[in-house]
């Protein structure tokens, strides 16, 4: 395998990783509706308002109106979606939990090998298991029309679908990281860290 091909493939993998991580980065904007829903639920509690809006027909997730309970549930659901989608961004930008005290004692090459093995034997199996386990719950929620029993949100499958989506993104980034680290071991330039410094090779 020529050095030119290795470097080009490495650049492609870097771009793919950036695209996957950008989905998680964009989802950080969900913090704004989370904060607004918290404020709205506080106001509803203070002024004893249980029904904010109602309308004819049914809107996915909200049903026929916006109630205090639906706003409270929205906070939990949006936080869950945020958690599912930002995992890939955290992993890509090295903001996930790491044992740096231990890894800092390794040589850069050995640290890459440990990272590859960690992604291959821990990250990917975990993602596969959670994707597999979440599909039946998603299908059941869709088939039964699962919704709140407390005058809250409807169409819970719309929220539950973010579990397999989130772990699919995380698994995709894991595969990309494994391939990219293998190319680094083969001599490709190391990808830039979030701070702009290069990892060792």
Automatic annotation (TrEMBL):
Subcellular localization is given as: Cell inner membrane
Q: Which Pfam families match?
A: DctQ
What is one cellular component GO term in this UniProt entry?
plasma membrane
Molecular-function GO term, any one: transmembrane transporter activity
Q: Does the keyword DNA damage apply?
A: no
Explain the purpose of this protein: Part of the tripartite ATP-independent periplasmic (TRAP) transport system.
Annotated family: Belongs to the TRAP transporter small permease family.
Q: What is this protein called?
A: TRAP transporter small permease protein
Q: What is the lineage of its organism?
A: Bacteria, Pseudomonadati, Pseudomonadota, Alphaproteobacteria, Rhodobacterales
């Amino acid at each position: 395998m020529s050095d030119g091909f290795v470097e080009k493939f490495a650049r492609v993998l870097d771009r793919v990783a950036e695209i996957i991580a950008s989905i998680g980065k964009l989802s950080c904007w969900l913090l704004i509706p989370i904060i607004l829903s918290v404020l709205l639920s506080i106001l509803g509690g203070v002024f004893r308002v249980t029904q904010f809006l109602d309308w004819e027909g049914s809107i996915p997730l909200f049903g026929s109106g916006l109630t205090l309970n639906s706003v409270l549930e929205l906070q939990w659901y949006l936080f869950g979606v945020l958690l599912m989608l930002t995992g890939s961004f955290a992993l890509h930008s090295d903001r996930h939990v790491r044992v740096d005290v231990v890894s800092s004692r390794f040589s850069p090459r050995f640290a890459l090998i440990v990272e590859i093995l960690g992604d291959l034997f821990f990250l990917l199996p975990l993602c596969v298991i959670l994707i597999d386990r979440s599909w039946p719950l998603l299908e059941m929620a869709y088939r039964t029309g699962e919704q709140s029993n407390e005058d809250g949100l409807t169409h819970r499958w719309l929220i539950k679908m973010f579990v397999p989506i989130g772990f699919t993104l995380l698994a995709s980034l894991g595969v990309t990281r494994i391939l990219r680290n293998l190319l680094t071991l083969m001599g490709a330039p190391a990808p830039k860290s979030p701070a702009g410094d290069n990892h060792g090779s």
